[in-house]
Batch of 3 targets.
Target 1
Amino acid sequence: MIKVALLGNPNTGKTTLYNLLTASHEHVGNWHGVTVEERAKLYNHNGQDIVMVDLPGIYSLSALSYEEEVSIDYLLKNKVDMVVNICDASNLKRNLYLTLSLLEMGIPTLLVVNQIDRRPICKIDYAKLEDLLGIKVLHINASNKRDGEKVNDIILSLNEKIKEGYHQNKPAYLNEFELHKFKNLFKGQEFNPQLEDFYCVKMLEDDEKIKDLFSVKKEFGGVEKVAKRRYKYIDDVLSSCCSQNERIYGSSKFDKFLLNRFLAFPIFILIIAAAFYLTFFSIGAWLSDGLNVVLEKLISTPLTKLLINSFGEGSWIVGLFKDAIFGGLGSILTFLPQVALLFFFLSLLEDSGYLSRVAFVFDDILSKVGLSGKSVYTLLMGFGCSTTAVLTARNMEDKNSKIKTGLLTPYMSCSAKFPIYSVLGGAFFGAKNIFVILGLYFLGVFVALLVSFIYEKTILKSKEQSFILEFPPYRMMSGRRTMSLLWQNVKEFIIRVGSLILAMNVIVWVLSNFSITFRFVGSGGVSMLETFGRVIAPIFKPLGFGSWGLVSALIAGLVAKEVIISSICMFNGIEDYSTSNISSSIKDAASPAFFASSSAVISYLVFCLLYFPCLATISVLGKEIGKKWLFIGLVGQFAIAYITAFIIYRISLAIEMFGFGIVLGFIVALLVLIISFIVVYKKLKTKRCAFANKCPKRCKKK
């Protein structure tokens, strides 16, 4: 069995190559930080077993970030037969820095140059590059199946050479560093002798991780010397085998508009608004309505009639299948097209290269609340799935920033919440619901930034962070990549609906149809869920929703947010999931789940946006940031959800009573008053400090 480590800079097509070689479907994107931990897969090529290990994308073998620490630890602690180092043909100068570090380690290396763009920045003489570096160099397209076969063939041939005693030459410039002076630092300690030169270079660079490994405290101060020599070597190599044109990697005329200080934010808002409009209305709504008709006429109605004929209309078996299974799943499956569209647009932002520009645009804002542009990746991924987004917070250099980013992610409106917005908002606001949905998404972002600011000023102050961002070129999504992405998201959604949500629907149905004494209550009697719901419902009456059905749906939503809508439909006995039918049901005071006004709906949507995340996200958060911070985060999140929903409910009620203009005027006046007090207070404080400086010491004491 051959063990191969796949390593390269971020955004070079590393995960794309991993998927090609191992027939996997890992997430890929045109931005930094997609892979945050190693992953491995065993596959067979021409009768030979190969274990391919995909390591996080890194820029060097100096542990300055979480990703670099993961990759370095793996290479130092695990025996690998070879490394496949992937580089981008348009960014070789930057990528080869990591290649030289691997050659210094002495691990047999295959250099794979991936031509992502059809017109690379420079033309490369690969045969000459291979001679100059002294290793095998292969030019490929990481999404081409034939090129994947070539990579596997060379892995096998290189493995045969290693068995025959293949010796890979290390870079000649290492002789200039007089590494023999550092070798006495390793006396009496066990380590892989193959890595001796690598450890010596790391000592010269004052690499804290390696110095701690060998208990060395002396400073050598050679990091700049080593870096300059590596880049000089790279320049010499590239000047001999590359012809550079005038284009700069990642540069584009579009950036004059997309990164303009005045246009950047409006353009971003317009892009997000367009994506949401197409998802929740327009195309998405049309597809969802069509799927609803298909599910109702071809599956739900025929099967329900069959069960009624077999067991009788009043049987609990009919109720279980009709309400919990056909009804519950049908209410969620109708949103399948919108889920697919939302993930498609998020991936389009990733693959196009625009996401990195968004990180750059938001870096100044986030730095004021104790975060960096890196947090943008995590927060934007939170619009898709909070559980996977939390994992990407690992790439924060600062521990407090990592904790804050993890705690803020659940405030982002994940894809599981938009069925709630679409159904409840659509029932009350119709076409105007687009503004409600946009408002909820931006409210989540605003609250997250406000919470981060509070954490920064109180218990989670971040250290000053460097934010180095490399703009990838703008690229179009490939047809194969698009179809693969859509299929993966559709499959995951169907599996989620068919397992977790189905199981939860059955449990909710049982709790809402059987009493505490386990008797079937049917249409009469009090169920277990109603009993419990009525106990805690008064807590939420100040927020405008106090029916036991709505409160019970919130509890069920802890397992999966999609269950909130299926639970409401189940409680109200909704069979036809048309907007008009749902609208009349949740407005009926006789229903277990009803809203007395549009203000109550807005309050409920805000609470759904901000209250506890699903159990899967809670579990991941506990592992990533610790139980203490998880507890603080959950308590704070519930309190913020309650207070925010209460304030918005009261404002909405005031608008209903007095009109929008009067309420807006009152809020503006109140803000002006508060700002005036703050300005006067700061002015008086400044004058007091100035007076104290001129005062005698005895006055200062007084």
Note: The beta strands are 2-8, 39-45, 48-54, 82-88, 109-114, 122-124, 136-140, 242-244.
Target 2
Amino acid sequence: MANKTITMLQLRRVLQLKEKGLSNRQIKKQLNLSRKTVDEYVNRLKQTDKSFKELLKLEDEALGLLLYQQPQNIVTSEKFNDLQSRLPGYAQELTNPKTTRIILWEEYRQQVPNGYSRSQFCEHLNRYLQTRKAVMHIEHEPAELMEFDFAGDLLHYIDIKTGEIVKCPVLVCRLPCSGYTYVEALQTQQRPFLIAALSNALQYFGGVPHMVRTDNMAQIVKKANRYEPTFDEYAQQWSLHYDTTLTATRVAKPRDKAGVESSVNTAYYRIYAPMRNKQFYSLQGLNTEIMVHLEKLNHGKYQGRDYSRHEKFITVEKLLLRPLPEEEFVVKYSRVAKVAPDYHIMLGEDRHFYSVPHQYISKQVTLVYDTRNVEVYLQHQRIASYKRDYSKNGYTTLQEHMPANHKAIYEQRGWDEEYFLKKAGEVGKNTREVMSILLKQRTFIQQTYRSCIGSLELGKKYGNNRLEAACTRALAFGTKINYTTLRNILEKNLDKEPNQVSIDFCIPLHDNLRGDTCYG
């Protein structure tokens, strides 16, 4: 076959045989080459203006340059140059799924009537597109990066109580340097579950990489940007807690995280496939099975290599990871509130009130809280701190937050639990029990004492005997007891009515009564 490329060894053998005076036909038989191929290469050798002996002395590189890369005057037509200038625009147009090569060619021929045919147009366009598909191999530094992404396919388990099939998204995390992988099924893709899973991944790796990369998922990236993406506040808290840097890929550029894309594909046939015929009845059971196959994946040898992901991770990456923080990550939330005239602010989620120093009444403050603690800040200065109290409509008050006159009243009157129980005991046993209930309602201390005082004042208005009767009735009927309950009982004179009504009722004897003789 003419123009068939031969090896450098064959070429030097042709030179040797020509130096010995053999004909092209004889060379063809000895080297088992096509006659046209031998003729073509001999003609090229003769055009170099060097003898066969001189050519044999050249290095392979010099001989190849002389034979294959002889300068040629390539002449391009105006039609070719015009099409080449249009190709970048056509390539951009093809990113629109509604645009086809035929449409582009028809528009091209309208603008250039004597232009290329459709087949030649598509050939030039395809060649141009191929040059833009070059893939760069990147060597990642150890402990440099962790990539994560959700797998496209879901796993599921069966809710044993309802029989419902619960579909679960699957998060895949990967350290690109070693390929060490972590996989977990989540209840949902919502941010709290995602952040918890990322923390689990770092626990599995036993350390923290310098960077963590996402693909602009909405749970973490607040605003996508090629150069400076904006991350969600809670994601930033997570990165600060673990002392790592969040980064994001370019929008719609999956190759920016090619490593984790590969791990997702690997998870399909190394984790999903072995689990395909099994039933699971809880998320925990599903993740337990995932971990079994994940360990096999990480400890199995790479195809064509003598080491596993785990071995490479332990050898080159494990010791370079930053240490995990001593405490687990807890999401901190923040809310803005205005200090009320009673120098308290409300945490809306719990409807619980916390005091702040009274001098900040009417100021805008920020509550920063997690599952355990509540802190109050005024322009980055912490002015109060509490253990979180989940009691609805409750009050948590510090005496040092009170103004001077409130403190004086509190101290002078000596109001405390013992004081009110003693006063109620002077009225009666049931009044003392009601007072004990009022004091255990854990409301704001001043409001509690006012309720207690109001209840004792009812004894002065209606008499202690009626107050005791009202307390007895409230306890007997199990109603919600407070000052208003007692006042209503006294105002409506319900305390004067008997608490229980006994009805003596018997059926008189008559002929229609059946006895044991009626039943055989």
Note: The radius of gyration is 43 Å.
Target 3
Amino acid sequence: MSKRQSGVKPGRKRVDPITASVINGALESIAIEMGHKLMRMSYSSIIRESEDFGAALTDAEGRQLCECKMSTPLQSGPIPGYIRGILRTLEARGDKVEPGDVIMHNDPYGGASHGPDFAFCVPVFLGKKLFGFSVTTAHHLDVGALTPGSCGIVDAVDTYAEGLQFKAVKIVSRGRSNDAVWQILRSNIRASDLVVGDMEAQIASAEIGAARLKALVEQYGEKTFNGAFEDLMDHSERLMRQAISELPDGEYSATTYIDGFPGIADARYHDLPIKVTLRVTGDEMEVDLTGTADEIPDKPINMPFEGTVDCAIWLTLRSILLDSVKFGEIPQNSGLTRPITIKAPKGCLANPNFPAPVIARFCPGNQLADTVMKALSQAVPGQVSAGIGNLRVVAFSGLNAGEHWVHMEILEGSYGGRLGLDGMDAVDTLYANTRNNPVEDMESHLPLRIDCYELRNNVAAAGKWRGGVGSIRGFTYLADGGFSIEGEGHIYRPWGFDQGSDGTTGQLKFVAKDGAGKDLESKVPYHRMNVGDRLVAYGPCGGGYGNPFERDPEKVLADVADEFITAEMAQADYGVVILENAVDMAATRKLRNAR
């Protein structure tokens, strides 16, 4: 990716700041409205409850104007890449964007995050001039892959095995519906009513956004609107450049590892490094991924460079360097990315060659974000957390009276400890902020019973600020079906920081109806389940932050009471002696002084 020049001139304003601020607020309101409308109109719980969707507005080139704040960054963040991919594809085949078009796109080598994330793009015209795009993205439950669902596809040999691919296809052309494409969709995907219903909701939401954007531009005039947008991008760029300039110049490197496929004897398939080197020079930063493992040509844990890798890096840097607690609301636009250059060798996990499969890119991408944070911890130790417990994603599925049911569930991870704060328990981490589904919603719609949903006991990583704790979730099948899982973190523990302890790995267990059980790897291809069979998932726990012997003894006592740790762990890891549910301060001081 080449360096983009900003052209920012301090003090230069195209419109007055108040007008620009009002326009920015209006843009954000449009994106939020798009998100709410999409959630309310959607059929599947992955959008309606988990909020695994994106909504954003761009200009005619694909530069982001705004995004829906309650969507996941991995859905809204790639939208400029979707538009660039669409424009390249249309130009290559001699087509163009016209009024009344609705364009569908899910090409993972053309800007899409991965195949199940479909974008529906509605162009905005001012007269005959293309002005911008209103775009929604969402993860769909099934895209016609080898096995049911659109996650847990961990045995695809190439992108063709990952499901249907649509490259800038006009599902509505000049106002006329392309019924043949809708028929292809319905004929090649499972749970088609849910999936097509979600797609129709995406289109309706994008049309609302397009109408609102056009009205806003007409209200202020194109010149004023464009001037405000350029000023807002310059403002966001200045904030990022200032944050980078406050870092000491130099290189900051870190490496973490992902499980890969430990069941395969070939060493190329497991224990895969992700390496990040941050090079800070003045107010610019290069993110170099040289040293990251080579791509795996026939397993789908490669990461699209545009759509996953870039978003993981941008989101992590923006969250750490421009923390909203300190900086407040910052315009979310393309100006934020101008000072950052990303370099990834072609043919590595983070920049694969077509047609290397990429559908299970989520967990490696989240580990990449974690590695960026680990590298950045050397420059801003007070602004990071210790290592995160990665997420897992499971696809539950089955047949009911000849009809497919498919459900996608996100098994949450946890954060490491932070300066002044313990790690957050059982939450999505880094570039994901989706929610898990309510138990009541799942049990009322699916032949599944949730047997348990609780925090893990006695596994919290020690630190002055302890690591976050993962959950235990048990699922029992009430009808025959199956599942598949994509995950990480069963081998490598989340990293502790500044004398904090490493976290705890995740686990998966299959338990048959007769009670016989077995441990599963972090990635499970389609696995058949009979009535009464159970899947039990143990979430990983984040790393500890800081010297455990500096933790307030009363907080250690509270952790024992909450069963985050045992009294024996309190004494061994924290030097805190607990007798009869109270801290023995004299014994604690003696033990801590001795160490």
Note: DSSP finds 14 helices and 22 strands in the chain.
